[in-house]
Amino acid sequence: MNPKATPAQVKAAEAILGHHFSCRRYIESALTHPSATEGMPVSECYERLEFLGDSILGAIVAKELFERYPSLDEGALSRLKTSLVSGETLSAVAEDLGVGPCIAFGASEKSKSARGMHSALENVYEALVGALYLDAGIQKTREFVLGTLEDRIDNHEAQAPSNPKSALQELVQRTLKCAPEYVVVGQEGPAHDPSFTVVVKVQGIRVGRGSGSSKKHASAQAAADALERLTKGRADGALCGSVLAHDFDEEGTCTSSH
Fold first, then answer.
1. Which CATH number is 7-159 given?
2. How far apart are the C-alpha atoms of 225 and 18, rounded to whole Å?
3. 54 is catalytic
4. Is 64 annotated as a binding residue?
5. In the annotation, is 126 catalytic?
6. Which candidate in 28, 122, 126, 135 is catalytic?
7. 163 is an annotated ligand-binding site residue
8. 3-class DSSP state for residue 205?
9. Residues 6 or more apart from 38 whose CB is under 8 A from it?
10. What's the pLDDT band for 241 if we cut at 50, 70, 90?
């Protein structure tokens, strides 16, 4: 049995991309989830193409923003780029494009969770970018990327912090002269699609919690949660010291620290 994407799935994906592939291996691999190729070479699934596509996508978006917004500084450009290439954005775009039905899953993922599909959509979008670049070149790839992200290129996103961990580190060190501590408190899911849960502590008190497909992503979510709690959404980003009088349980519910 061939675990790769079916001819129908490939045809649908080519219609989405607006390109007929000369090298079928590229598009077939880009649409194949790791669960469908267990025990086979990694080149049979989308992971290597995802790696390539991530870099190509970043370069295309960075160049477009650099040219489109000449008045934005490096920090604002970075925040906007981060928003555009985030997993949340790419997953939503891929879903809107109809990528989901094109993905070939293994038996273990047939009854996939919403979280699993979210991750797969993000990964396949990047893999398709990598596959398109290899088969059609940079211009065609640029047209696809900008065509699918155009409606989301909005410079108001440049106001949001691009790196919650750095922002939290700066806030805590500046105001409390200490560093936040990140602790992995949970891991679930299969090896090829794990979900981690991380809590972040300040002065031994839990101030944020987050989940993600990697420890890095979960830590970033925890930091973003902590920033919201510690500043209570204040425009000046100042620390609300009263927050540290409380801890949070595993569900993020406020509890007394005494």
1. 1.10.1520.10
2. 40
3. yes
4. no
5. yes
6. 126
7. no
8. strand
9. 106, 108, 192
10. low
